[in-house]
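[audit] Reproducing an earlier prediction to check determinism. Same input, same settings, fresh worker. If the tokens differ from the archived copy the diff job will pick it up downstream; this log only records the rerun itself.
[audit] input (164 residues):
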Amino acid sequence: GDLPFQPSTGEAVHVSREIVDLMGSIGTMLKDLGFEKTVPNEPISIEVKGEIFSKVLQFAEKYLQKPSEKPPDGKKKLKLADWERQFCDELDKPTLFHLICAADFLDMKPLLDVTLLYLAMKLRSLTTDEIRKEYGITVSFTPEEVSKAEKDFEGIIINTVSKK
């Protein structure tokens, strides 16, 4: 049956087992507490705001209808499906960042992969000055520091997205 969740703000919601199975940290917790096959009497409190959790659930429902294509073994996912890009395009910056944090907290790999890849692709298309303006960055770096940071950041994103 559906499991009750209580986000840090808003109303409690019931979430299908299929969606809960996408959340690694919640699945582990339920297993540890003996709720693999039963439903807890009280809602499960999670430190995710209600409006962000509703976006998590919205993504999960779409993902279960249209799972992402898996890249060949050893290859990294470097392309978003149309629905994934559209989902992210509809988010404002704060919501995108909160969603990335929620996906990490919930250990929801499909959502984390999509949101990080979207952000990486967006940043990659901007110049350094555009990134500074877009994200309110005022610190100046030498060209060498910028080059090193770009390489490091790209490696981090690719490694994060490629982990299974």
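[audit] rerun output stored. Observation attached for the diff report: Strands lie at 3-6, 13-15, 44-45.
[audit] end
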